[in-house]
Amino acid sequence: LEARAAAHAPDASDDDDEFDRTPDRAPGLHAWVEQIAALTEPDRVVWCDGSDRERHELTKVLLDEGKLIRLNGEYRPGSYLARSDPDDVARVESRTFICSASREDAGPTNNWVDPAEMKTELTARLRGAMRGRTLYVVPFSMGPVGGRLSKLGVQLTDSAYVVLSMHIMTRVGAAPRALIESGEPWVKALHSVGCPLVDEAGVRHPDVEWPCNPDKYIAHFPHEREIWSFGSGYGGNALLGKKSFALRIASVIARDEGWLAEHMLLIKLTSPAGRRFHLAAAFPSACGKTNLAMLRSTLPGWSVETLGDDIAWLRQGEDGRLWAINPEAGFFGVAPGTGESTNPNAMQTIWGNTIFTNAALTDDGDVWWEGMTAQPPAHLVDWTGADWTPGLGRPAAHPNARFTVPAAQCPSIADDWEAHDGVPLDAIIFGGRRASNVPLVLEARDWNHGVFLGATIASEQTAAAEGAVGELRRDPFAMLPFCGYNMADYWAHWVSVGRRLGPQAPKIFQVNWFRKGSDGRYLWPGFGDNVRVLAWIAARLEAGNAETGRGAGDASAADGPLGVVPAPGALDVSGLDLAESDLAELFAVDPAAWLAEAELTEEFFAGFGERVPSELHAELAELRARLTRA
Ligand code: GTP
Ligand code: SPV
Ligand code: MN
């Protein structure tokens, strides 16, 4: 690596790399790398090319340093386990900042610090922060390289684990670098774990398994399209192409350019008649996107193919329709709950070439987590490195343990998942984790009603971020932690996008897989049986299509106070062990409880003041009127 470092340093005289011979081709890039290297004082600078050779070298470094554990190649070839610091296991929303010019532009749902102040503070933290470490320069593309909806970035990082993860999650290498050096716009993404190996006195300290810093900052500068992340090595805090770029910065670019950057899965649904539908769905973190994206149908003739599991960029095409891409190249998926019975496609995807983070280790060198099998192994090493046996009363894997794996390995991946123009979108689905009140499925009456449904999503909090798990919180559009500007302006942007799309706009639906009975059990079987809900959605999409009529199934529906719901018998529940009373409860609407929710929605909107679009106030008034009549 050291030799390569010399060869790839920006000022190297060695000219085996055609780009390094002409460092002036991207003066912004080279000057920035030099400036950050001067500030952070790494031992060396390595320009990454995304190659297999680089992956092997970085893996070897991480194994030698004890930062990765090689899994048993018989069960999990090319796969590794990383164990994080126990205080660096999830996104840190309290330390995530949107540093727009004014506090109002960040809005009440984001932490805001004046951009100049934040840069001063972070510059102080970053001074000498990479001493004793390597600074990696990682050019990447979000979306297929050169695609119409794709965007470029460069991440600087002092974590080889982050580089390896970026290899999987984004398109790293010479092709995006060439586009950047040809003058295409790109996003600056600076990351340091904030854990120098050499102190101020020049004394070198031993490294640790997972370097990080208790003082964390995930700072975004929307105006400059820049990200500065300090102190964490974990997923959403550190893989800056993902939430920081593809959602927070991209949502601002999207607002300015008239498109949408969303926390959505993307799938292709095929009916028994061979009709194809492209659906996007926004559910909050750890609320079922990966599972729906990889759904294996329990209804004969229906199938789902995977296009994306976490992020979608949506843009109007020349034909006037809304087109969607998945800007990522891999899955950073929740491990617990993933097993053959719930998500067999995910289990097959992670057959090998996978980085696991905070899973438990079996005695024969494989990984395990709660929900992978019905019975846990008799002995494990848990995610903290401690011995574990069943009955200890604590989970063996961290609840936010994750797998990082190339999307191409997914058996259900769609042929056109890397199409440069994306796919035309037929429907958008909103959902959350709601034990009560929210029905299994409903259809919005029109676009603005759909925007109201998205804006008012509430969901029980999960382990994907710090905070009390289970607490109900508003998570509009599943974007609460990811919107890079004022949430009310974002709602207004959605209203305006719908106005522009007109009759070509996708239809909007809402789902809830998580409703519970009074005895605390889930009323709906979920997972593969969610295709039954998708089939009704497809029928509704076909019902509006005069040419093909009702080829997709029973589209009959009834108007309810919350929206349009399946008419009795329209939802295919054949073969399910579902009591009539449970089915009724899945769709039950309690007007009193909903009037109370409407009260909370009014309070929620009030927190955004005058910026809430009038269309949403009108939808709230309409909801109340319908509930009162109900
Ligand atoms: P992020 O990657 O955090 O954005 O999450 P995600 O939305 O992709 O969530 P994921 O699909 O990984 O699901 C999170 C948890 O919800 C897992 O433990 C799943 O097993 C569980 N889950 C997903 N779908 C269903 C469902 O239909 N029913 C039930 N009961 N649980 C589900
Ligand atoms: C989420 O929390 O929504 C994730 C995982 O998808 S992370 O990349 O850590 O944000
Ligand atoms: Mn997510």
Automatic annotation (TrEMBL):
The active site is at C287. Substrate binds at R91, Y234, G235, G236, S285, N400, A401, R402. SUPFAM superfamilies: PEP carboxykinase N-terminal domain, PEP carboxykinase-like. Its cofactor is Mn(2+). Keywords: Cytoplasm, Decarboxylase, Gluconeogenesis, GTP-binding, Lyase, Manganese, Metal-binding, Nucleotide-binding. PROSITE patterns: PEPCK_GTP. InterPro entries: PEP_carboxykin_GTP_CS, PEP_carboxykinase_C, PEP_carboxykinase_GTP, PEP_carboxykinase_GTP_C, PEP_carboxykinase_GTP_N, PEP_carboxykinase_N. It is an enzyme of class 4 (lyase). Gene3D superfamilies: 3.90.228.20, Phosphoenolpyruvate Carboxykinase, domain 1, Phosphoenolpyruvate Carboxykinase, domain 2. GTP binds at A286, C287, G288, K289, T290, N291, R402, R433, F527, G528, D529, N530. It catalyses: oxaloacetate + GTP = phosphoenolpyruvate + GDP + CO2. Its EC number is 4.1.1.32. Residues 6-25 are annotated as: Disordered. Residues 32-255 form the Phosphoenolpyruvate carboxykinase GTP-utilising N-terminal domain. Binds 1 Mn(2+) ion per subunit. It is found in: Cytoplasm. PANTHER family: PHOSPHOENOLPYRUVATE CARBOXYKINASE, PHOSPHOENOLPYRUVATE CARBOXYKINASE [GTP]-RELATED. Belongs to the phosphoenolpyruvate carboxykinase [GTP] family. Monomer. HAMAP family: PEPCK_GTP (MF_00452). This is Phosphoenolpyruvate carboxykinase [GTP]. The lineage of its organism: Bacteria, Bacillati, Actinomycetota, Actinomycetes, Micrococcales. The gene is pckG.
